[in-house]
Design brief:
Elements (H helix, E strand, L loop, with lengths): L2 H11 L1 E4 L5 H25 L12 H12 L4 H4 L18 H7 L2 H11 L3 E12 L36 E6 L10 E3 L27 E3 L6 E4 L5 E3 L8 E10 L12 E4 L11 H17 L17
Antiparallel strand pairs: 1-6, 2-8, 2-9, 3-6, 3-8, 4-5, 4-7
The chain binds 2-oxoglutaric acid and fe (ii) ion (FE2).
Length: about 325
């Protein structure tokens, strides 16, 4: 797609898919290898704790994750995630801060696409997740945590503090596996970014009656990347397939503006004006998160919902 067409679609529709932007071999395989090692560690630990009958190291990644999630019945998403939760943080809350993840955040192809929308002074916003979702029917009740199951209708601006309302935070959703209607691809409402911020209820969701008309599903190929406006209404379908559905959702914004999560660390990912400010050291990045975790384990988290949940539409 030409730049003008891409930008035209982003501004008109509130989103654009850059088809096969990332290379499955050089960009995605390092993440698969990295997460395979992490799964190894989890399997060995949970096996040692007697939660699993085997470490299942002969299974391919997806099958192995499904087996481990299903047999353990344990919440697992936070072991894989690349950000901290919004509450209940302890000094040992798991967070996955590998070099492969840091390289994804700094991927030049990804940043080239981001630059088209927000310009060359690019800050990696700390609202970021990995979602590796097993078939939803296999999840135990405790495992229906936000990142493991389908996502309800929302706008990403609604999960950031109001201080970032004017920051043009760009959501960047990366398909690591193909995302299909069966395995839980995204749904978006084209043009909904023009309608302002809608009331979200206590479950961080826009009530069905307030979701704008015209939703479409957004199947995406492995390596394709969605760029989405912070007010575009979106959700995801449940995974009703037999395999995993894997994505990263990252966010970027211009340098020097509020991120909406001031207690979490971001970093300068690209800067023409001040190249020396760019963070290139993976260990420094991991340390920033470890410091934030230690601090947050002692203190209070700000309230993240700007809605009380008692709005009439939430009844
Ligand atoms: O992948 C999903 O299920 C939801 C992703 C999402 O809400 C986002 O990327 O902002
Ligand atoms: Fe979202």
């Amino acid at each position: 797609m030409q730049t003008a067409e891409l930008l035209g679609q982003f501004h008109e529709q509130g989103f654009v898919v850059v088809e096969e932007l990332l290379d499955p071999g050089s960009d995605l395989q390092p993440l698969v290898d990295d997460y395979s090692e992490l799964l190894d560690e989890m399997a060995e630990q949970w096996y040692a704790e007697g939660v699993l009958a085997s470490t299942y190291d002969d299974l391919p990644f997806g099958r192995r994750l499904i087996q481990i999630v299903r047999e353990s019945g344990r919440p697992y998403s936070q072991y894989l995630d690349i950000s901290l939760p919004l509450g209940g943080i302890t000094p040992t809350t798991p967070i996955h801060l590998s070099a492969a993840v840091f390289n994804l955040l700094r991927n030049p192809r990804l940043l080239d696409a981001v630059e088209l929308v927000i310009g060359p002074e690019i800050y990696s916003n700390p609202i970021q997740h990995v979602r590796i979702k097993p078939p939803e029917r296999l999840l135990a009740r405790d495992q229906h945590e936000g990142l493991a199951a389908k996502t309800g209708w929302h706008q990403d601006q609604g999960v950031a503090l109001p201080e970032a309302d004017e920051t043009p935070i760009l959501t960047v959703w990366v398909a690591v596996t193909d995302a299909t209607e069966q395995n839980g691809c995204l749904c978006v409402v084209p043009g909904s970014h023009r309608e302002g911020l809608i009331t979200h209820c206590r479950n961080k969701q826009i009530p069905d009656a307030l979701v704008s008309d015209g939703a479409v599903t957004l199947p995406m190929k492995r390596g394709s990347v969605l760029l989405m406006h912070r007010r575009t209404q979106h959700a995801s379908l449940p995974n009703v397939s037999d395999d995993i559905r894997w994505s990263f959702d990252l966010r970027y914004q211009p340098v020097g503006q509020p991120t909406g999560r001031p207690m979490f660390p971001g970093f300068v990912a690209r800067s023409r004006r001040n190249p020396a400010s760019v963070l290139t050291d993976h260990c420094v990045w991991a340390d920033l998160w470890h410091e934030a975790r230690a601090r947050l384990a002692q203190g209070e988290m700000p309230e993240f919902s700007r809605w009380s949940g008692h709005e009439p539409v939430c009844a």
